[in-house]
Specification:
It is a single chain. This protein has three helices and seven strands, in the order βααββββββα. The chain is α+β, with helices and mostly antiparallel strands and 136 residues long. It has one domain: Hotdog Thioesterase (Thiol Ester Dehydrase, Chain A), CATH 3.10.129.10. The strands form two sheets. It has a five-stranded antiparallel β-sheet with strand order 1-4-5-6-3. The radius of gyration is 15 Å and the shape is elongated. The mean pLDDT is 93.
């Protein structure tokens, strides 16, 4: 899978404010769903990694909002890894609605064991991610 992965999400009423736009923090949930589906499509769903003692918590998030998304909009979330150095993985996200940029962001994850002790990414996951690099 070297083409960018795209996750589609229909905005629900529950995600919106009274002003009928997506509440800013709700994008974090959308990005989480998109990342989960990305790893599943890559052939590495996250649950088996957790069962093997790995966790990938977020340690940093950067989001830049460009325009509002509204109830019933169909969002397309592009997910692509940007870099992996030691125990840190940076993933880029681009959210569009009807082709227009809504949000750009990055999440930085650290690889840990289930007791939150840092560890290197497993080699088989690194091998699956390497062809996916978008830069860096």
């Amino acid at each position: 899978m070297t083409a960018p992965f795209v996750y589609r999400h229909r905005v629900t009423y529950a995600e919106c404010t009274l002003g009928n736009h997506v509440y800013h923090s709700r994008y974090l949930d959308v990005l989480e769903r998109a990342r989960g589906e990305y790893f599943r499509a890559l052939g590495h769903p996250l649950l088996p990694w957790q069962e093997r003692g790995f966790a990938f918590p977020i340690i940093e998030i950067r989001l830049r909002y460009e325009r509002l998304a509204r109830y019933d909009d169909l969002l397309e979330v592009t997910v692509r890894p940007k870099s992996l150095r030691g125990a840190r993985l940076t993933i880029g996200h681009v959210v569009r609605s009807a082709g227009a940029l809504v949000l750009e962001g990055e999440t930085v994850h650290v690889c840990t064991d289930t007791k939150e002790k840092p560890r290197r990414f497993p080699p088989e996951l690194v091998a699956a991610l390497e062809p996916e690099w978008a830069g860096d």
